[in-house]
Amino acid sequence: MTAEAAPPGTDHPPGPLESRSRALSGRAAANNTAAMLASRIFAAVLGLLGTTLIARALPAVEWGYFSFVFGLLGMLAIITDLGVGRAVIGKLVHGDPAESAEIATSFIMLRTVLGLLGYGLAMAYVFVLRCPPEVIAATAIAGLVVVIATPSHALTVLFQSTMRLTLVAAAEALARTVQLALTVVAVLWAPTLLVVVVPALLYEVVAVTVKIVAVARGHGGPVPARRVELRWWGEMLREALPLSIGLALIIMLQKVGLLLLGHFDSFESVGLFAIGMKFADLVDTAAIAVVAPMTTLLIALWPSDPDRFRQYFRRATVAVIALGLTALVAFWPVATQVVALLFGPNFDAAVDASRIQIVGGLLGALAHLGLVALMATGRNHLIPWIALAALAVNLGVSWPLISRLSFEGAAIAGLLAQVVLLVAVWLALVLTLRLRRLVPIATVAMIGGVAGVVIVAATRIDQSWGPPWILTSVAACLIYLLLAGGILRKTDGLTIRNLRGPKADETVANRASGVHRDGRHRDDARLRTGADRDE
């Protein structure tokens, strides 16, 4: 019996038809999103706790060094990512299953080489710019994170291509737990810069180990071939070139404020700016959990099924906005108390910048989803121009704002750039795809308005009566979710149940693989005509 025709209870690696079926399944996307969302939020909370411990343990200038080093390493995604992963997903979903093993191996090796290149560039950067010796030493240790994380992400792409991200979610949750435990030990034993960067390295070691074991056992999509075919590198890089340029510019857009502060202001300002970035990362974490499975689904649906493409893009847009606004409602009214509780009174000055950065994080999350849709539909050539416009705005306003407002100016410059990025991305989608009702503008406006009203009311209550911050935050979130949920049901008919979509054996996914419920294969003409819909 072939793997594709095996009964549901059989334990076997997924065959090519089964993998294709999962890639087209809205329910698989929803399940993967739920798993990744839970894992990423759990990991982000633990990461924030670890960061809090480090910020409290280190002197202000060393906390600035710490933030600068990891900001620099984040910038290295310009080199280590290159957008190749998204191009490879398309090959694995739509390409010849017989070539998947070779593509997987070549992709992993390419990412490994890029990781080593990124590490070398990081070290060259801190040496050439004559950074303090502490920064150079910390970069030498923490930079190994890039060497491990870059091929580790390649393994994640294999899981993503077959909608099997639950193992990745478990690996990341486990790794973050280990990291937090080691951070506690480091802070208690030797709270110095060179010691507290080590747990981040061990996080990557744990995560990649779990992924390697799972892939070797056939649970992460195609099992990599033992032989490396370098001929795939050129094709991968050529297809990813426009996306690579665009992503490089977007990464610069996200991190340039931190680096500008490090060179033109002070490392203390870098540390204050980094506080807001930690909170904004929570929004980014939720967005990635939604977008990662959706990437595979959108690639699989376009161009054969534009109706379902539009349907799932709208759902993802609403989900990202609802999650981001929930974070904003929870944080904005009680930002002063939360920052003081987590980081201490020395960081009170970062409150307003943190609020601005969370708003920017929400806009950036929506822009990310739009960029994925452009990539999935083959509009990669538009992405560099969109990103360049947003980066030009950031650079154009950063210097005068930083010189006048320091780290708050950097936060404002980043927000303005995210506005430009989001508007440009959504205009490109509407004008090039020409799908009606692609963006749920009315729904977004209503739930955004509700969030604004709740924030204003909660802020006034907190300032006037001063209840415990946790009560204010939780009450504001519950009220917002209740009101926003009612709006979503009335405008788009969205509930948690129909967000998941129909069961796997009721979707176009199984018909795409030609599998009957009894395990027999068939050829369905409805698939070829695009007549099969789930709405």
UniProtKB/TrEMBL annotation:
Compositional bias segments (type: Basic and acidic residues): 515-535
Transmembrane segments: 37-58, 64-88, 108-129, 135-158, 196-219, 240-262, 282-304, 316-335, 355-375, 382-403, 409-431, 438-457, 469-488
GO cellular component: plasma membrane
Keyword Transmembrane in annotation: yes
Membrane topology, as annotated: Multi-pass membrane protein
Protein localization: Cell membrane
Matching InterPro entries: Poly_Biosynth_Transport
Keyword Cell division in annotation: no
Disordered: annotated span: 1-23, 510-535
Domain of life: Bacteria
Cross-referenced Pfam families: Polysacc_synt_3
Keywords: Cell membrane, Membrane, Transmembrane, Transmembrane helix
Name of the featured protein: Uncharacterized protein
Species of provenance: Nocardia mangyaensis
